Amino acid sequence: MRIFFIFLICLTTLAENSRAENPNLAPKVIEETDYIMGTLMSPYCPGRLLKDCPSGQAFQLKEKISTRLQSGETSEAVVADLINTFGDEIRAAPEVKGFGIVAWFAPGLFLLIGAALILVWLKSRTQQREPNQAPPLTPELEERLKSELR
Q: What are the residues facing 40 on neighbouring strands?
């Protein structure tokens, strides 16, 4: 079992460092590749970013992205081609246009509405409370109180 974990750690380390140790890749290409892989979902690992997907197909796609960037293609062209190939679902975050605007601004709007409702509720709760006033004393109770206090 220990050998399996050691193998897994070595494999993960090699996969992460293979691109960074490649002297043929310029630092700008590595940076752009990392950016693209961090902004796109993996078509091979549902629910994971491309940079976090451990599948072989994702590794090949990462290498293809690096190669295309190294050959001089812009990152926008690479992303546009990937979106055409795999669909708009490959985006990790929706665009800030069309219905995507709702996805960007709805959470903040709901947060503001919730905070306003909590403030209104707290204000109504504090207004309902009046200082505790003792009920008026009847003459009998007043006499009894005076006699007991003496």
A: 91
What is the C-alpha separation between 143 and 133, in angstroms, rounded? Answer: 20
Pick the closest to residue 57 from 40, 43, 77 (CA basis): 43
Burial of 70 (0-12, 13-18, 19+ CB in 10 A): middle
pLDDT digits (tens, 9 = 90+) for 107-147: 999 999 999 999 999 988 877 666 666 677 788 888 888 89
* Encoded amino acid at 25, one letter: L
Considering its fold, how many domains does the chain have in total? Answer: 1
| Below-50 pLDDT ranges, the chain | 17-21
Domain that holds residue 40: 2-90
CATH number of the domain enclosing 19: 1.10.8
Q: Quote the pTM value.
A: 0.54
Q: Extract the tokens encoding 117.
A: 């409702």
The two structure tokens encoding residue 41: 């979902």
